[in-house]
UniProtKB/TrEMBL annotation:
<feature type="transmembrane region" description="Helical">
    <location>
        <begin position="85"/>
        <end position="100"/>
    </location>
</feature>
<feature type="transmembrane region" description="Helical">
    <location>
        <begin position="44"/>
        <end position="64"/>
    </location>
</feature>
<comment type="function">
    <text>Catalyzes the conjugation of the 1'-hydroxyl group of D-myo-inositol-3-phosphate (also named L-myo-inositol-1-phosphate) with a lipid tail of cytidine diphosphate diacylglycerol (CDP-DAG), forming phosphatidylinositol phosphate (PIP) and CMP. PIP is a precursor of phosphatidylinositol (PI) which is an essential lipid required for cell wall formation.</text>
</comment>
<feature type="binding site">
    <location>
        <position position="79"/>
    </location>
    <ligand>
        <name>Mg(2+) 2</name>
    </ligand>
</feature>
<dbReference type="InterPro" id="IPR000462">
    <property type="entry name" value="CDP-OH_P_trans"/>
</dbReference>
<protein>
    <recommendedName>
        <fullName>Phosphatidylinositol phosphate synthase</fullName>
        <ecNumber>2.7.8.-</ecNumber>
    </recommendedName>
</protein>
<keyword id="KW-0479">Metal-binding</keyword>
<keyword id="KW-0812">Transmembrane</keyword>
<keyword id="KW-1133">Transmembrane helix</keyword>
<feature type="binding site">
    <location>
        <position position="58"/>
    </location>
    <ligand>
        <name>Mg(2+) 1</name>
    </ligand>
</feature>
<feature type="active site" description="Proton acceptor">
    <location>
        <position position="83"/>
    </location>
</feature>
<feature type="transmembrane region" description="Helical">
    <location>
        <begin position="106"/>
        <end position="124"/>
    </location>
</feature>
<comment type="pathway">
    <text>Lipid metabolism.</text>
</comment>
<keyword id="KW-0594">Phospholipid biosynthesis</keyword>
<dbReference type="InterPro" id="IPR043130">
    <property type="entry name" value="CDP-OH_PTrfase_TM_dom"/>
</dbReference>
<dbReference type="InterPro" id="IPR044268">
    <property type="entry name" value="PIP_synthase_PgsA1"/>
</dbReference>
<feature type="binding site">
    <location>
        <position position="62"/>
    </location>
    <ligand>
        <name>a CDP-1,2-diacyl-sn-glycerol</name>
    </ligand>
</feature>
Length: 203
C-alpha cells in the first residue's frame, strides 16, 4: 500500500538525478536540525510537524533505490545508522526542553529512558543478527516509537492535556517491554542451533 504512493515519487526523484544517499542525508539533517532547534525552544508543535515532514521524506530513499535499481548493502547500513542519529536528536531536543524551559525533571528522566531504551531495542536486534539469529519481534519498533513520540509531543505543543505526559510514559513502558521481548526471543534462538542463520561476528 505504502509503496504505491512512494514508488512514483521515487521515480520522479530518480529522474531528477537525486540518489538514495541524498534522500537519506537530507532527511536525517532535516530531523536533526529541526529537533535540536525547535524542541529546546519549546516549539513542540512546529518542531513535530517539520520533523514529521523530514521523516516521511527519509522514507523515500528505498523508493528511489528501487526506481534507479541502486539498492545496496551500504545504503541500507547508512540508512539504519543515520536513523539512530535522528532518534537521538529528537529525544535530546526534548530532554533539553524539559531540563530548561519545560522545567519538568521527571519527564526529562522519562525522555532519557526512552532515548536509551530505543537504542537498546535496536542494538539487541543488530547484535542477535550478528550472532546468526533473527530477532524481529517486539511491539514497539522504530516506526511505532516515532509515531507515539511525534503525535504526543505535537499535541502537547497544542496544549492538549495529558497527551504529552501520557504518550512519553507509554513509550517508556513499550520500550521496556520490547527490550524484554527481544532478550527472551534472542536467548531462545541462540540456545536452539536450528535457529542460526550464520556464524557469530563482532559488531
Amino acid at each position: 500500500m505504502i509503496s504505491r504512493v512512494t514508488l512514483p515519487i521515487g521515480r520522479l526523484l530518480a529522474r531528477a538525478g537525486i540518489t538514495p544517499t541524498m534522500v537519506t542525508l537530507t532527511g536525517t539533517l532535516g530531523v536533526v536540525v529541526s529537533a535540536l532547534y525547535f524542541y529546546p525552544r519549546g516549539d513542540l508543535y512546529v518542531g513535530s510537524a517539520i520533523i514529521t515532514f523530514f521523516v516521511l521524506f527519509d522514507m523515500l530513499d528505498g523508493a528511489v533505490a528501487r526506481a534507479s535499481d541502486s539498492a545496496s548493502d551500504w545504503g541500507a547500513f547508512l540508512d539504519s545508522t543515520l536513523d539512530r542519529l535522528s532518534d537521538a536528536a529528537v529525544f535530546s531536543g526534548l530532554l533539553l526542553w524539559f531540563v530548561t524551559g519545560g522545567d519538568d525533571p521527571i519527564l526529562a528522566g522519562v525522555v532519557l529512558f526512552c532515548l536509551v531504551g530505543g537504542f537498546g531495542v535496536s542494538y539487541i536486534k543488530a547484535r542477535a543478527e550478528g550472532l546468526g539469529v533473527n530477532c524481529d519481534v517486539g511491539i514497539a519498533e522504530r516506526s511505532e516509537r516515532l509515531l507515539i513520540t511525534l503525535v504526543s509531543v505535537g499535541l502537547g505543543g497544542l496544549d492538549v492535556p495529558y497527551v504529552l505526559t501520557g504518550g512519553l510514559w507509554i513509550l517508556a513502558l513499550l520500550c521496556a517491554l520490547t527490550i524484554a521481548q527481544r532478550l527472551v526471543e534472542t536467548r531462545a534462538r541462540l540456545t536452539d542451533p536450528s535457529s542460526r542463520v550464520g556464524g557469530p561476528e563482532e559488531q
